[in-house]
Amino acid sequence: MTFVVFPAYNEEQVIRPTLLALAEAMRGRAFRAVLVDDGSTDRTVAEAERAAAERGDSLPLTVLRHEGNRGLGAGLTTGIGWCLDQAHDDDVIVTLDADGTHPPTLIPALATALDQGHDLAIASRYRPGAEVHGVPGYRRALSDVGRLVFRVLYPIPGARDYTCCFRAYRASLLRRARLLYGETLTTARGFEAVMDLLLRLGPLGVRVGEVGFVLHYDARVGRSKMKVLRTVRSTLGLLARRRIERVFRYRPAQVRGRLAAAEAAARAGRSPGSMADVRTAGHGSAPDTLQAKSRPSA
Description:
By secondary structure, this protein is an alpha/beta fold. Helices cover 41% and strands 18% of the residues.
């Protein structure tokens, strides 16, 4: 089973065609689309449900809703947490942007990379076959410089693209990460949460594979919601914290000990809990709609 997580905020113009493209790309494969609506004020959910109604059983959809806009970090946390509560260890959890810039047609190739022995497969802009269209020059320069900084200060074997949200994870990897970090798997609120999630997987010895992809940033509708300077400042601070933590708190022996203790606690019935605390808000043949409860920010 493949769970496909779309964190979304005000994406009414693109979410329906994006979900329809997903249904076509995953034809013949067991999957579920998981839309995390981060307090949208437009028709994002209605358009997603319209796509599901059009495709019927070929587009299974669950909608998780935040009462207010809590940021990409909360969207990823809610979506991944809900999927882990449903998934088996060998299932796949995919995350990608809901704005139409990440082609769902690449998901089978990412899943194949997992089948080749990787825990995580990244859609990369720095591998053969990759192309980037429509990204402003200054944004490309920031990405290139950021990639070099990450690879020097926090190298993860196999990873070249630290900032792309389009990834496929083996559920067992994220489950181990949840055991290790609990509800602090990522504490970042904004777009830096994408990098944070990868950094948190580093101490687990994650095996990373990458697949080159064609990014059509010119296909997105509307302006980017990322505040560039704020994201750069937050990312640099985050990188420094995670670097220090990896040296002093998450050395290999420490990680093994923490995981063993967490697994023992889980077997004793003291589970660290899921990252997504949700309650059912609707039933029936329509897409599942769940309300995600707010948690205090870290």
